[in-house]
TrEMBL record:
This is ribose-phosphate diphosphokinase. Pfam families: Pribosyl_synth, Pribosyltran_N. GO terms for biological process: 5-phosphoribose 1-diphosphate biosynthetic process; purine nucleotide biosynthetic process; ribonucleoside monophosphate biosynthetic process. It comes from Callosobruchus maculatus. Homodimer. The active form is probably a hexamer composed of 3 homodimers.
Length: 324
């Protein structure tokens, strides 16, 4: 409700555009009528945001991608997959001998995408629920024997599903079990279940604050996705493409450079001393590394050439009467 009030306040204050950044979209699981007289709450939330005056929505890992169709305004559904891949390669030593597992059939597409990019196998668990937050039975489809199992899902609430899935994987012969989730809600007995489960680690993003959960459980680890949202906001504000963020991890996280105007002027002088072809290749390489960001590319290239032509830049500063 506070978000709706703020959006409306901006609109009646003559804001030309209002972008709502919602890392964890509320009521995303209520996206269809699964029984008689059930509400479609996700559609209701979409209508409320549109009526309040939102012009653009930025969110991450919707429970169902079709929720984007509930809106009549642009929706950028970012994916945590690039950050997840980065974490797996940096923190799981045996990741080449792993198998990516989906705890339900609905997450099969997400799991196959990660498995393909890691060049490993995947498996899935078919589950049947008695009622909400209560699983009746589970059937594992795939061979996890003598492999590191990585459970991947979009969210975990009471953690009953992933804990039962972890037990199923260990019974099937998995050597270790990790759980990687985008949205860690962790309500009710979730933390106690995680502490008692056979997980090596339960990794979540910070779309929902996790400081308290990390204090309550040493198994809970957090992936910071704030830079991804910041870059999405920047690209949206500047009218640039956001699609790069759907499948790529920012290579220069937390790397911001502010170049003084005098140094940028010296950059122009240095360019005259470099061969055009070499300069083109340097520019092209940095352009790719910065995610097709021209401004950042120029700044980085300025630094590179500054290091290469230190004497020339120092001489320029002396000519300008500036101590270096």
């Amino acid at each position: 409700m506070e978000l709706l009030i703020m959006i409306n306040a901006c609109k009646i204050a003559s804001a030309s555009r209002v972008t709502a950044v919602i890392p964890c979209f509320p009521y995303a699981r209520q996206d269809k009528k699964d029984k008689s007289r059930a509400p479609i709450s996700a559609k209701l939330v979409a209508n409320m945001l549109s009526v309040a005056g939102a012009d653009h929505i930025i969110t991450m890992d919707l429970h169902a991608s079709q929720i984007q169709g509930f809106f009549d305004i642009p929706v950028d559904n970012l994916y945590a997959e690039p950050a997840v891949l980065k974490w797996i390669k940096e923190n799981i030593v045996e990741w080449r001998n792993c198998i990516v597992v989906s705890p339900d059939a609905g997450g099969a597409k997400r799991v196959t995408s990660i498995a393909d990019r890691l060049n490993v196998e995947f498996a899935l668990i078919h589950k049947e629920r008695k009622k909400a937050n209560e699983v009746a039975s589970m059937v594992l489809v795939g061979d996890v024997k003598d492999k590191v199992a990585i459970l991947v899902d979009d969210m975990a609430d009471t953690c009953g599903t992933i804990c039962h899935a972890a037990e199923k994987l260990m019974e099937a012969g998995a050597t270790k079990v990790y759980a990687i989730l985008t949205h860690g809600i962790f309500s009710g007995p979730a933390i106690s279940r995680i502490n008692n489960a056979c997980f090596e680690a339960v990794v979540v993003t910070n779309t929902i604050p996790q400081d308290g959960h990390m204090k309550d459980s040493t198994k809970v680890q957090c992936i910071d996705v704030s830079m991804m949202f910041a870059e999405a906001v920047r690209r949206t504000h500047n009218g640039e493409s956001v699609s790069y963020l759907f499948s790529n991890q920012l290579l220069l996280d937390h790397f911001f450079i502010k170049i003084p105007l005098r140094l940028i002027r010296s950059f122009v002088c240095i360019l005259r001393q470099n061969q055009e072809l070499i300069f083109f290749y340097k520019f092209l390489l940095l352009y790719c590394l910065t995610g097709h960001n021209c401004v950042m590319t120029v700044r980085l290239l300025c630094c590179v050439l500054f290091c290469q032509r230190f004497s020339s830049v120092g001489q320029w500063f002396q000519e300008e009467g500036t101590s270096f």
